[in-house]
Amino acid sequence: MTGGLRAWAVSVAATAVSAYALDATATAAGVALVASGLLGGDGNHRWALALLAASYAVWAWGLRANLRANQELLTSTGTSTNVLSKAAHDLTRRHTTSPRAVRLAAAAGYTVTEVAKEVPYYAGAFGAAVLTDSVTATGALVFLAGANLGAAGYEYGLARLTTAFLRRRRYASFDTDWEPAAYLDGYYRTVEPDEVATIAFFVDALRAAERDRPVLFFGVGPTLHHVFAAAEVASEIHLGDYLPANLAEIRRWLDRDPGAHDWRPFVRHTLRCEGVAEPTDEEVAAREDLTRKKVTDLVEVDARHPRPVARSYPTVVSAYCADSATADRATWALFMRHITGLVEPGGLFVTSALRRCRGYTVAGRSFPSAGVDEHDLRAVLRPGFGSPSIEVRQVPQEASHGYGGIVLAAARRTATSHS
Ligand SMILES: C[S@@+](CC[C@H](N)C(=O)[O-])C[C@H]1O[C@@H](n2cnc3c(N)ncnc32)[C@H](O)[C@@H]1O
After folding, report:
1. What is the CATH number of the domain that holds 319?
2. Is the ipTM above a cut-off of 0.85?
3. Does 418 map to a domain?
């Protein structure tokens, strides 16, 4: 089952369980309040009305807590305890990058369902009051107030449960847990199918890069496998990453340290993508030398910063960076705006992301992934970039790493737009 389908299946099941549990809690609380004899007499009608009004305020408070928890659940797992809320969330996300609009849509979907669940209670309580003598109108109001209080308790309890579940799901930290050597060992011993596709796409996309101008690689990690594709077209290459340890690993390769990672299989694949049918060892070494010559700067960058580098570039490449740096879609969109803001008007942006992925493992630790797809990428590139070319590739072999697909994109910033 794909990640998207699994999220729907979990949401449908959670919605059904939640609806029954809410029903049972609210009914039991309503019956208990009536049975307590509180405000039972007919003379208490006004007090019963006041209690009902107050119970709505408490219910709204419980619902508010649950809406917040549901939003967090949707953002970090793509699932919800209310299927209508998930539908509204996913649909709105396809049409806008505004986190506020998406949040409001999810909350509206949830609230509409919870309000609709009130109808049977009203019908039941007042139907019984009209049809039988044993239930008075005051009794019906007390029952409804009790049901509201039960529902409030349920909403609040569900919010606490959801939050506790999310807190258990802790991701590893780049600052303290990232091991460049383990990342290279786990992902870059050989050219895996996702990189066969990514490098081929990048080679093709970079044919449209402006020649003899600088190229920035943003969030390059400890890797060079995408960089070889830019060596011929770039006047110079700047490599940026958040972690000094990653840049140190690259420095080792630039300095020909004997312990540096061996990128030759990736260089060979790059040359094949460029049209060299059987690259010789000399051609591979020549591309490595050219790349070493063209890399003139290693820079620490932080996508959280609105202006992560103090200049702009005619070509920016950012592979598996923003999506692999956060589990939160809204944060991913923000990082993407910061990164794409480095592209000059008329410049080229080339990117890739793990598709609908929730996390990937490095040395047994789980790092976050934003769970984005081609719709998210199109939406985030829409302002400022004219009709991006976006491709999806399935890579089921990578499921053990936490993803089964990738999204590849190339887009040109419109000549008039500024970051
Ligand atoms: C999965 S790695 C991708 C590395 C490389 N581009 C690749 O394709 O293998 C994600 C990278 O994002 C970087 N990163 C994490 N947080 C970041 C931030 N706030 N700003 C910039 N880069 C960040 C990490 O240091 C890491 O190198």
Report:
1. 3.40.50.150
2. yes
3. no
The enclosing H or E element of 295 equals strand 295-300
Beta strands at 365-368 and 385-394: parallel, antiparallel or unpaired: unpaired
7 and 150 assigned to the same domain: yes
**CB-hemisphere CA count at 13 Å for 391?**
14
Is 305 close to ligand 1, i.e. is its CB under 6 Å away?
A: no
User: Is the distance from the beta carbon of residue 299 to the nearest atom of ligand 1 less than 6 Å?
Assistant: no
**CA 217 to centroid of ligand 1, rounded, Å:** 11
Q: How far is the CA of 147 from the centre of ligand 1 (A)?
A: 50
Angle at CA of residue 334, ends 179 and 359, nearest 5°? 40
Same domain, 295 and 363: yes
220 lines ligand 1 (CB under 6 A): yes
Range of the domain at 399: 174-413
pLDDT digit string (tens) for 360-385?
888 888 899 999 999 999 999 998 99
Domain count, the chain: 2
Residue 66 and residue 161 share a domain: yes
Cβ of 174 closer than 6 Å to ligand 1, yes or no, is yes
Query: What are the per-10-residue average pLDDT scores of the chain (419 residues)?
Result: 71 91 88 78 75 90 91 76 92 68 88 85 71 74 86 92 75 93 95 96 98 98 98 98 98 98 98 98 98 98 95 98 94 97 98 92 88 95 92 82 87 79
Going 389 to 395 to 398 to 401, the CA torsion angle's sign is positive
